[in-house]
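Is this the right way to post C-alpha cells for a design question? Let me know if I should format differently. Anyway, here goes:
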C-alpha cells in the first residue's frame, strides 16, 4: 500500500487506472482516455447507428447529459455513482453510453483505494454498456474524504423520448421498494445497533435490497413496450417518494391524491424507520421509480412490470386538476426538505453513544 502525496496522481498509477475503461464495444470513440489526454472525441454518426438498432428506428437520436456526485456514505461508491447517473438518463428513455469521472482524494489516501474504485467502476460500466471516456483525479488538502463525481451521456431517438407532460386524470404508479436504499445505508452504518433489534437474516436482506438501486433496464424495457402511454418518469432519490411526487407535479401546478398504504415498503424499512423516528416516504429511494401514465394503460403497465420481475409495482394515486392540492394521505404536501437519511444517521449516532 502506498500513501498518495498531494498533487497529481503518480504517472504509473494513472497509466494503470486508464486501462480499466468499462465497456469496450461502443462505436464512435475517436480518442480514448490516456495519461496527458484531457478530452474525449466521439463520432456521433457511428453512435447513432448503435442507438437506432436498440430501438429499431431510423430517426436521429437526442443526446442526453447528466451529472451527479456521491455524497452519502455507501459501501460501493463506484456502483452508486454509475447507477444514479444512469437512472436519470433512463427517465427520459436514454440508453447510457459514456461517462467521465472526477475524483478528489485527501492527502495520504492509499493507492489501493483508488485502484479498487476504478476496478469496480470499470466492472459496472462494462455490465451496462458504458465506456469510461476520461476524467480528472488529484490528491488535495481541500477535501477530508474522497469525493466522486460523474458526468454521463446517453442517447434516445426522438420518438422514444419520454416527455415531462403529466395530465389531470393520469395514473401514478410506483415500481420498486421505497426507502430501500436508505435502509441499506442505515443498516450498514448501524449494524452493531441493529443486531440487538433485528435478526442477522433481516439485516442482510435489508442491505441486499438496498443495493438494488438501478431502474435503467426496467424503464428502457417499459419504454419500448408502452412509450405512448408514459407522460413522465422520475426516480425517487433524495427526499424519497414524497419528494419525487412533489418534484413531478408542483412545477406544473398540478395536484395529486396519494394513498400511502398502496406504496411498496419492506418490513425491515418499516421497522428501522420506527426505531430511528424517521419517515420511510422521505427516505432516499434509488431503485424505486414513479411512472405517470395514461389511466387506460395503468393496469397493463403494472401487470407487465410485475410479470417480468421488475420489482413490486402498484398504482398509488392519480394526478388531479391544475391548482388542486398535492395530497398525501389527505394531508397537503409541502416542498421537500433534507432527506430523512440525515436525521436517521444522526439519531443512530446518538443511540450508539
Amino acid at each position: 500500500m502506498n500513501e498518495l502525496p498531494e498533487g497529481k496522481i503518480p504517472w504509473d498509477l494513472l497509466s494503470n487506472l486508464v486501462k480499466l475503461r468499462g465497456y469496450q464495444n461502443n462505436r464512435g470513440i475517436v480518442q480514448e482516455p490516456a495519461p496527458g489526454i484531457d478530452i474525449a472525441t466521439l463520432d456521433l454518426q457511428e453512435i447513432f447507428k448503435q442507438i437506432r438498432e436498440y430501438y429499431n428506428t431510423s430517426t436521429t437520436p437526442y443526446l442526453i447529459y447528466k451529472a451527479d456526485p456521491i455524497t452519502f456514505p455507501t459501501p460501493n461508491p463506484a456502483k452508486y455513482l454509475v447507477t444514479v447517473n444512469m437512472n436519470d438518463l433512463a427517465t427520459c428513455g436514454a440508453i447510457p453510453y459514456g461517462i467521465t469521472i472526477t475524483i478528489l482524494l485527501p492527502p495520504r489516501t492509499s493507492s489501493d483505494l483508488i485502484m479498487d474504485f476504478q476496478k469496480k467502476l470499470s466492472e459496472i460500466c462494462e455490465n451496462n454498456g458504458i465506456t469510461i471516456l476520461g476524467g480528472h483525479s488529484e490528491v488535495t488538502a481541500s477535501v477530508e474524504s474522497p469525493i466522486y463525481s460523474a458526468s454521463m451521456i446517453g442517447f434516445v431517438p426522438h420518438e422514444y423520448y419520454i416527455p415531462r407532460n403529466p395530465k389531470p386524470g393520469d395514473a401514478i404508479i410506483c415500481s420498486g421498494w421505497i426507502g430501500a436504499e436508505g435502509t441499506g445505508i442505515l443498516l450498514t452504518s448501524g449494524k452493531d445497533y441493529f443486531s440487538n433489534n433485528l435478526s442477522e437474516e433481516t439485516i442482510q436482506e435489508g442491505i441486499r435490497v438496498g443495493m438494488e438501486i438501478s431502474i435503467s433496464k426496467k424503464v428502457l424495457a417499459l419504454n419500448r413496450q408502452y412509450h405512448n402511454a408514459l407522460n413522465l418518469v422520475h426516480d425517487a432519490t433524495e427526499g424519497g417518494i414524497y419528494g419525487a411526487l412533489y418534484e413531478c407535479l408542483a412545477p406544473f401546478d398540478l395536484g395529486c391524491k396519494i394513498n400511502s398504504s398502496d406504496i411498496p415498503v419492506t418490513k425491515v424499512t418499516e421497522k428501522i424507520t420506527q426505531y430511528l423516528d424517521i419517515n420511510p416516504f422521505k427516505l432516499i429511494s434509488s431503485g424505486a421509480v414513479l411512472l405517470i401514465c395514461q389511466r387506460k394503460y395503468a393496469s397493463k403497465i403494472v401487470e407487465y412490470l410485475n410479470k417480468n420481475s421488475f420489482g413490486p409495482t402498484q398504482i398509488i394515486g392519480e394526478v388531479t386538476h391544475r391548482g388542486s392540492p398535492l395530497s398525501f394521505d389527505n394531508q397537503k404536501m409541502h416542498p421537500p426538505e433534507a432527506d430523512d437519511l440525515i436525521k436517521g444517521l444522526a439519531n443512530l449516532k446518538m443511540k450508539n453513544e
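Format looks fine. Someone answered above. Worth noting: The longest helix spans residues 111-127. The chain has a mean pLDDT of 94.
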